[in-house]
Amino acid sequence: MRLFQNIKTTCIILTSLSVFSGCDSTDEEQPTPAENPLEIQQTLTFGGTKNESGQSVVSTSDGGYAVLGYTQSMDEDISNKSDTSYDYWLLKFDATGQEQWQRVYGGSNDDRGEDILTTNDGGFAIVGSSKSNDNDVTSNAGSNDFWLAKLNASGEIQWEKSLGYAGSDSAFSVIQTQDNGYLISGVLDVSASNGAGNNRANMQRHAGGDYWVIKLNPLGELEWSRYFGGTYSDTAYGAAQTQNGNYLIIGSSDSNDVDINNNKGSYDFWTTKLSSSGDLIWEKSFGGSEIDEAKAIAATNDGNFLIVGDTRSNDTDVSTNSGAADVWIIKINPEGELLWEKTFGGSSFDSVQAIHKTQNNEFIVAGNSRSTDGDLTKNNGQNDAWLFRINNQGTITFQSTVGGSAIDLLMDATELNDGKIIGVGNSNSSDFDVLENKGFTDLLIIKAY
């Protein structure tokens, strides 16, 4: 067992922002923020002399957590790595925060992990993109392929699957479906695939990058593959399954043709609803006249969904904008009707990467900020990691930034069984809230409780 013996720990006590409003009649009663306070207690950095990042974090049944990202280093905190190409990097921690084990996965080329889930059998599924066709990766069809690996509880590969064509195809999200299979979403280079990658009938062929959605059975065997989009750039970043077994896929699109009928201007939050067999039920665009990109989706306890992303707009669907870019959160029902929308941020650039529901039906949001005003109170230089929590009505009940004088990014956050919040990302800093950096970019872990 490896402990935090080589990691400097920074303890930070910050004042939380506590605001509360009443609950919708459709939502369960929420505790007040005073009953569930948060403070940033710790920041940790892990890495070597090159580049590392934490991209996704999940709680585990033993009260601990697992972090997936990627690593380039072969020294310091990284074990069992044989070259300086990028590899998936998985670290498992117990309930006390001690590192239990870590593993690297990939081949001799560039492999970067993006998303992790705990599977119903107690193991893990990890997904991202791979350029390798050796070692752990048994095949590669082009520049980048989707690469999914199913792991047991100890991190050993049970099976792995590469999916892609001649171009750059990158996966960003995996969910386990109600039938214990897997749904992977990302972007397919349709131009390079020459139209391959889609087994829906009567498909109009077109160019560009499209949402690519792949359904696998529990053993990793392909059930169906679909792409959706237009002639420009369409990238899927997240997915959720509805209560009746359909799927919502979210991301960004600047197309206004083929599958997309109502682009609001530049990039929009683009949401598609698919049947359990991958058929397009409906598609909707949300946004304004500027760039709006959805990054994550979470189900609410009333059967609806929150979608989070970034906006530079202040018109059409976006009611306000505090600065250059804000975090934008919308609530929709399963039919794609907009229930409410809110922006969060200050007068500079603010962005978001993830959202997760907490045990008391609030939502933790992982993002980044350059602002010192509006919803923000502090910035130590360039981008700081920004962690905040909202209730069901979109009211902030806690927020805090963590960082140093360089670039610090938060990519994901989750709640543990005991209510602690773990945020993960990467950091270039070695001052203020981040005391140590071993190389160029280190994996960053933030603990709040």
Output the keywords.
449 residues, mainly beta, Methylamine Dehydrogenase, Chain H, five-stranded antiparallel sheet, globular, disordered N terminus
Write the element-wise H/E pattern from the N-terminal end onward. EEEEEEEEEEEEHEEEEEEEEEEEEEEEEE
Q: Provide the CATH architecture.
A: 7 Propeller
Count of β-strands: 29
Largest sheet: 5 strands, antiparallel
What percentage of amino acids are in beta strands?
over 45%
Query: Helical segment tally?
Result: 1
Uncertain stretches: 1-34
Q: Based on CA inertia axes, which overall geometry fits?
A: globular
Q: What is the level 1 CATH name?
A: Mainly Beta
Mean pLDDT: 91
Radius of gyration: 21 Å
User: What is the helical fraction, as a range of percent?
Assistant: under 10%
Structural class: mainly beta
CATH superfamily membership: YVTN repeat-like/Quinoprotein amine dehydrogenase
> Within the CATH hierarchy, at the fold level, what is the topology?
Methylamine Dehydrogenase, Chain H
Summarize it.
This protein has 449 residues and is mostly beta strands. It has one helix at 190-193; strands at residues 9-11, 40-46, 52-59, 65-71, 87-93, 99-105, 111-118, 124-130, 145-151, 157-163, 170-176, 182-189, 209-216, 222-228, 234-241, 247-253, 268-274, 280-286, 292-299, 305-311, 326-332, 338-344, 350-357, 363-369, 384-390, 396-402, 408-415, 421-427, 442-448.
Structure description:
There is one protein chain. 1% of the residues lie in helices and 46% in strands. The chain has 449 residues and is mostly beta strands. It has a 5-stranded antiparallel beta sheet with strand order 1-2-29-28-27, with no helix packed on it. A 4-stranded antiparallel beta sheet has the order 3-4-5-6, with no helix packed on it. A 4-stranded antiparallel beta sheet has the order 7-8-9-10, with no helix packed on it. It has one domain (9-448): Methylamine Dehydrogenase, Chain H, CATH 2.130.10.10.
